[in-house]
Amino acid sequence: MEIQQTLEILAFTDPVCTWCWGAEPVLRKLQVGYGDQVRIRPVMGGLVEDIRAFYDSANAIGGDPERSNAQIASHWLEASQRHGMPVRTEGFRLFTAEVVSTYPQNIAVKAAELTAPALGGSYLRRLREASAAEARETGRREVLIELAGDVGLDLATFIGHLTDGSAEHAFRADLELTRQFGVRGFPTFGLRFGERALVLRGYQNFQAMQAVIETLSEGALQWRAPMPDAAGLLGFLRTFGRAAPVELTTVFDLSPADLERLLAGLEAAGDIRRVAAGQGCFWEPMAAGPGCDSVTGLCAT
Description:
By secondary structure, the protein is of the alpha+beta class.
């Protein structure tokens, strides 16, 4: 029996990096089309250790925490106009006099992975949503804990990893891996298939990522395009929970007009709902009916 080879992607990232947020449609398309032939492993790179000592000359970001918030919000909005993922600038306040680093968010992701490896990706995604599309102050511990509850993590265990140093230790290991790969910007992707490997720096569109994957694997991986119909969309949303329109057009190769038609039908049938998010929206599946979620322990009416 032939053993299936797997291509590994090390996604060097930070939960509040806007171009990492913009990479979500491409990464989700890779997950759907290649399935378990591709394994995406997020590596927390720690974008800002201390905003007071940080300076991004290209976007004039850094220095005073409160002034930096306005600079970052403007940069995120400009980036959103290019990558299409929603952002909220109203009430945006990532940094304060007490919160000057993005390390708490990075450490929280490691705490989530230690608590429940299968939910680590869900927590990172929820953290990105809260930071970018909801303008939540995700550097605050109480917000990080609330988001852990949103994805069904055991809160006592999660808080334990935040408190006992184990999550920070895991984050420091990620920082060392980031240094070993010479990563100085996010996102950066390290791809490996067998003995072949390469590093891609910066945001990549799907066509570039697929071309590199096909080259590294020499055609060994099989691409399975999802069905671009209502059933396919609903199945995707039930798997991933929610998605921005650009994620759906990217994953299913749909035009905005065709996507709108399919979403309208699903919404009219009561299968999905639109959730406002910043200057855009998400689409998410409706609950099947009254009952309790065995993952989150939340009962709906």
